[in-house]
Amino acid sequence: MSFRRDTLTKPIFSWARGVLPAMSDTEREALEAGDVWWDADLFTGNPDWSKLLKIAPAKLTAEEQAFLDGPVDELCAMLDEWKIFWEWRDLPPDVWHFVKREKFFGMIVPKEFGGLGFSPYAHSEVVRKISTRSIAAAVTVMVPNSLGPGELLMRFGTKEQQGRWLPRLADGRDIPCFGLTSPEAGSDAASMIDTGIICKGEFEGSEVIGLRLNWHKRYITLGPVATLLGLAFKAYDPDHLVGSQEELGITVALIPTNLPGVEIGHRHLPSMQVFQNGPNRGRDVFIPLDYVIGGQERLGQGWKMLMTALAAGRGISLPSLSAAGAAYAARTTGAYARIREQFGISISKFEGVEEPLARIVATAYQLDAARRLTCAALNAGVHPAVISGIMKLHATERMRVSVDDAMDIHGGKAVIDGPQNYLGNLHRAVPVGITVEGANILTRNLIVFGQGAIRAHPYLLDEMNALADTDRERGLTAFDKAFWKHVSHSFNTLLRAFGRSWTFGAFALAPDAGDATPFYRQLSRYSAAFALCADMALLTLGGALKRKEMLSARFGDILSELYLLSAALKRWQDEGRQKEDFAALEWCMATGFRTIENRLAEILANLPNRFVAVILKLVVQPFGARVLGPSDRVVHQCASLVLEPSAARERLTPDLAHVDDDGGFARLERAFKLVAEADAIAKRMRAAHLSDWKDGVAKGVITQAEGEQLSTAHEAVTKVIEVDDFAPEALSPIYKKTGDVHQFFQELGEQRAAS
């Protein structure tokens, strides 16, 4: 072993130390945050499918289900999204009072501190349901239970801090927010210029050592109404009051917003969404050191704390909202396509409508599958950092496509705003999800593969740590051990990738999963191809790979597809292999395989080392990218899942916020049900070439009762396809004086003529 180390490994070790780029503290802390999970299996190139299938599905406790059936349903019934964003520009006071009283802000706070102590899956289910009724309410509820003071206190706070603040957060006495983003530092949070200088000062009548803070934050959700601000800043100790180091690094602290120097209350208007969001400032705000989350010993550890908390939060809140948006789009668009007729037939019969409708349906199936699988990990105490990034990125991006497709199918119905428009506000909200908690462009190009390649790879992090070891001999020994395991792993992966690619995955490992078994074989094949190409890219590019953002993004896309497709297979298995849902699974697989093959082809076409690229192409893609996507048959079957009342439709769109009012969604649900129930009658009328039900009764084609049933269904459809209109003075204060727009313009014309 020592001969290998000193003769073969040592020169490689010396070379690698010379080319390894320096890693900043923030990069290292981000890498160390969170856990690896199923992503590590995918990175091996030989995933253990039995491990995936053994994961216990996320489930609600009886108490959590009762909360969904009780307070959550009651809250949804209180919400009127049109009035919230058009008239009030806020949640009404009775809603604020209700969410505080029922402890919506304390869902994740343990019961010992007065919270509900709910699981991540329960948190996800609550956000999912509320968001199908009101985006503003969903964001208001999800933020205190995601990245913020509560999460950070639970993980890193001292016992004294937890005992003081968590009960107040749980019962709503304090409304929290978290200030991270600065005008100068968006995605690059480490470049913030917000400062905290350690000094002596007076606090509550006594002289103590504390921090004098100056900051400027923006885009802070709940900021305008927050009473407790979690703040990220850079701490400095110029007088060495707590140690020898002057620059301590990013730190997080709790700031009661009533302290002198805090400027808070102004609001942003993000894409016309009216959840509370705004800027805040602090000018010479003094706090004692025990307001630092975790106390003095946590000074300078804020970035790692934030990344650890974010690893969980990004996997819950926005994926839940996005999965809900996709399911909502599937249910409403399927119903609308079913009842809306053009040229004498339902528009759902047009293949041009079927194609985007199938995409909506399959996306809803896949996003909820991935949401549930991720929540299962979180429920088990795992905090998968890379997977959380995948979830935030792809859930919001795919929701964007689903909502755009839904808008296209609805046409003018979804474009004209008003109380009866059940899609418009969701469409306006999409850019917010794309932007927050890490911009999607950055996540795709730098984080998913950039972080995943190091964290999830079986040996790379060990090699990097060995190379960075200040004790050269110890580092060499550790590197020797990891490097040769890596070499063996790469050789086995090459053989595996070659065999599976040339046989189209026919003999790849797969569980006995019925009709889905071939899909597992293909994922095993693609996992091997991905692992081999990733290893070769890392070998030939080294540290330069992180600057090849387009290559990194393509690798990230493949890793993301492997995870999302795994989740879809897991869902189909957990739900009992429902035959009716197989079309949605087929669509997901065909589309995902096409993406994987195209990204592999793009990587091989752009890998700088052309010799390696040619060899890799012969190994992993000898016949080129061959998957074309879902067939027309699959598209037709997938779209059909939401066109009739069925168990499959309910599985695809479960637990949406159904409120029996006269709103647009409720009207649509009633019309859909009535049209479906009258379908057989309508078919007899069409067969007789009759359109007026009274003629059908007169000619004996249908009975009087059946005719009245058709009439009722027709009236319900008419109410759905109506769009809102307003008196001029209801939309603009310009016309309120005259009350008559025609008179206003007539007088304006007379004034111009007179001048």
Helix segment tally: 32
What coarse outline follows from CA principal-axis ratios? globular
* Beta-strand share of residues: 5-15%
Mean pLDDT: 92
Helix content: 55-70%
Give the total of beta strands.
Answer: 9
Q: What value does the Rg take, in angstroms? A: 29 Å
Low-confidence stretches: none
Query: N- to C-terminal separation?
Result: 100 Å
Main beta-sheet annotation: 7 strands, mixed
Structural class: alpha+beta
Key attributes of the depicted protein:
single chain; 755 residues; alpha+beta; 7-stranded mixed beta sheet; two-stranded antiparallel ribbon; 32 helices; Acyl-coenzyme A dehydrogenase
Explain what you see.
The structure is a single chain. The protein is α+β, with helices and mostly antiparallel strands. 59% of the residues lie in helices and 9% in strands. It has 32 helices and nine strands. A hairpin with a 2-residue loop joins strand 2 and strand 3. The longest helix has 31 residues, at 472-502. The relative contact order is 0.10. The model has no long low-confidence stretch (mean pLDDT 92). Residues 79-172 form the Acyl-CoA dehydrogenase/oxidase N-terminal domain.
Quick description:
By secondary structure, the protein is of the alpha+beta class. The chain is 59% helix and 9% strand. The strands form two sheets. Strands 1, 2, 3, 4, 5, 6 and 7 form a seven-stranded mixed sheet that branches.
Topology:
Elements: H1 2-19, H2 25-32, H3 38-44, H4 49-54, H5 62-78, H6 81-88, H7 93-101, H8 120-131, H9 135-142, H10 149-156, H11 159-170, E1 176-179, E2 195-203, E3 206-221, E4 228-236, E5 247-256, E6 262-264, E7 277-288, H12 302-313, H13 317-339, E8 341-342, E9 345-346, H14 351-379, H15 385-410, H16 412-415, H17 424-435, H18 440-455, H19 460-468, H20 472-502, H21 517-541, H22 549-574, H23 582-606, H24 610-620, H25 632-640, H26 647-652, H27 664-677, H28 679-687, H29 693-698, H30 704-721, H31 728-731, H32 741-754
Parallel strand pairs: 1-4, 2-4
Antiparallel strand pairs: 2-3, 3-7, 4-5, 6-7, 8-9
Domain Acyl-CoA dehydrogenase C-terminal bacterial-type: 454-726
Cofactor: FAD
EC number: 1.3.8.7, 1.3.8.8
